[in-house]
Amino acid sequence: MSEPFDLAGKVVLVTGSSRGVGAAIAVAAAAKGAKVACAARSTKASPKPLPGTIDETVETVIDAGGEALAVPTDLTSADDIEAMVAAPVEAWGRLDVVVNNAAVTFVGEVDIPLKRYDLIMDINLRAPLLTVRAALPHLRAAGRGRILSLSSQAALRPVPGLMSYGMSKLALERMTTDLARQLYPDRIAVNCFRIDIPVASEGTLANMGDIDLTDWEPTSVPADGIIWMLEQPDDYSGRCESMWDLRHREKIMPTRAQEEYTTKPPLQFINGLYDLNTEDAFAQGAKSLEG
Questions:
Q1: What is the rounded (10 degree) CA torsion for 162, 166, 169, 173?
Q2: What is the pLDDT of residues 17-45, one digit of tens each?
């Protein structure tokens, strides 16, 4: 077992960090002493319908005494991804950590328009793969590194309206376990954090109705768990961790909700007919969740 991974002085790239969990990860990493590159489409010059921009995230980091860089990025563009990875290296001379947080979803089942299906797969699966490929030379040059991707309970159980999103997240978890084996000799740990406790991010709430948020956590709570995972030794790799299980097993991420969420989520892939009568909580319409 190697020593823990100290984020102080490291360079961290976080995709989808204009708002929500991505922005919280960037702020939390900077609080540990990391320099943070914040990548997303949403900027002050080109805002999106949902609140939050990478410029605002950078300002939050800088106001707290940290270092951050805004990197406007369209994750459907391979050229943009190459430029995104190059930006922190040009600014700070290295890259140590990649956090694949950006995601998009549209409501739809088997008849989802293929244009929307393709966009989900481009952002949620293809972009993380291209980001890792572009980042690997720099992570190897640093001597140690970390890659962490964000998943969802939709990877393990069918959530009405989120079939394509769930497919993309399950594939991302599989990519995690394969990459971990490939990159272990390079001291690059690869892990996945599955959000299976309700988290009140702007993107998620945009697709929900008027719901009770009593047991929903703020985005700072999963960010704490993700930082914990990044700081583990090199042998901690190939893990697809449940937020629920990690909280109860490691006694981290104490609740900041009004009431703690108490419904245990599935921790393994669900087979058979499951939740046939589950109400479609995302039935309001198809809204993009990308940062």
A1: 160
A2: 999 999 999 999 999 999 999 999 999 99
* Cβ–Cβ under 8 Å, residues 175 and 129: yes
Residue with token string 């319409």: 285
Structure letter (DSSP) for residue 40 = E
Task: Please write the tens of the pLDDT for every residue from 138-156.
Answer: 999 999 999 999 999 999 9
Contact at 8 Å (CB) between 20 and 202? yes
Among all residues, which ones are annotated catalytic? Answer: 165
* Helix (H/G/I), strand (E/B), else coil: 29: helix
Q: Is 274 exposed, middle or buried (0-12, 13-18, 19+ CB in 10 A)?
A: exposed
**How many whole angstroms separate alpha carbon 171 and alpha carbon 100?**
13
Calpha distance 5→283 (Å, rounded): 42
